Give the backbone structure.
Amino acid sequence: MDQDHIDSLLERYLHLLHEYTSLREELATLQIGMYQNIARANFAAERGLRFGQDYYDDRMQASRRLAISYQSRDQAQDQSESESRDKRDPTVLSGVVPSFTVISPAAAACVSSLAAKDSKVGVETPDSRPHPEAEVEADSMEQSAVETTKTEEAGSASTPSSRASIVSKSMEDAEATASENSVPEVEEGRATQQKSNDPIRWFGLLTPVPLRQAQTQSIRVIEHVIPRLASVNVEMAEVEIEVRRARKRRAKAAAAAAAIRLSQQGGREQEAGARTEGSPTSDICA
Amino acid sequence: MAASQADYKDRQFLAVIGDEDSVTGLLLAGIGHVTNPPDSQKNFLVVDSKTETAAIEAAFESFTTQRKDIGIVLINQHVADKIRYRIDTYTAAFPTILEIPSKEHPYDPEKDSVLRRVRRLFGE
C-alpha cells in the first residue's frame, strides 16, 4: 500500500517534471528570440544609442503584477489524492499549493471603470496591440493629450525638453486630431496615463519594430511561462516532501514488520519448544 | 508555511537580477516597479562584469527577505552561480526563485536547482 502511494506520487512528479522541462524549453526559445530582437534593434539604432538601462524611467510602475492564490489540486491528481487521503492521515497532505498568475491591473481597472462609467474610453489593454496605423494615430492622440496638459500647466510657450524633435513633428497632426476629438478631457487624461505606462515609451515614440517584437515575446514569457514555471516548481517541491515522508513511513513500517516477525519467530520457537513437551495450552494459543 | 500563507497576497511584483538585455527585455513586459520617493526601491538589478558579488547578494537579500511585496525572483543563471551558496540554501516558500538563461549563457540543466533536486530525489 505504501509502495502504491509512493508510486502514484512519483508518477505525478514525473508529469510535473515533464511540464517543467517543456516550459524550460519554451522559455529558452522565447528568450533567445527576445535577445535577438533587442540586438537587432540596437544594431539598427543610431550610433551610440542602446536600448538599455540609460532609458529606464525612474518612476516606473508595474503594469503586470503577480497574483498568488492557493488552489486545491486539480484534475486527475486530485482523484488519486482524495483516494489516498481517505486512507491516511490528512495532515500529511497539505492539499493546497500556491499557484502564480500574472495579471495586468491596468486592464482590470480599465474594465471596472468601463463598467462604472459606461464610457468608451480605455478599451485598450496593454495586451491588445493595435495595428501599426492605428498605433501611430494613438501615438499622436496621446501626444496631443500630453501637449494639452502641458500647455495648460505652463502656458502656451512651454517647450518639451528631451524629445523635442520627434514631438514637434507630430504636434501638428496631434493638434489636428485633438481638435477633431470629441472625447471629454478627463477621460482622455486617463487614457494618456494608461498608455504612458507602456515601457516601450521609455525608448521614444517611434520605437523600432524588433523592439516591439521583443516586447511581445517578453510579455509571453511573463504572462505564460514564468508563472507556470513558478507554480510547477512549488508543486514539485511539495511532492518531493510527500515522497520523502512516504518513504520514511515505509521504512518505519518495514522496520516494525521486521520487529514483529522477529518476535513472532521467537514466539514460534518457544511454541515449538512447548509443543515438543506436549502441553495442551500451547495448542490453544496457536 | 502558515506565516507565508498570511502574507502571500501582498506579493505582487516580480524581481529581476540579470544582465542588461535580460532586464530590459523583461521590463518591457511591464514588470518594472520603483516604489514611492522616500526610499525609491527598484525591483531589478542590472549586473555587468563590474558588478560586485556583494551587490548581487545585497539585492538578492533585499528581494527575498527584506521586501515583502515580491513573489518571484528571476535571476540569470550565470549571476546565480556567483551567489550559488545563497540560492542553494534558500528554502522559504516566498518568493520563489527562478533561474533564467541569459544572452551569453544558455540554460544549463546541470546547474538548475530544480533538476538537481530531482536527481537527489531519485538518486538517493
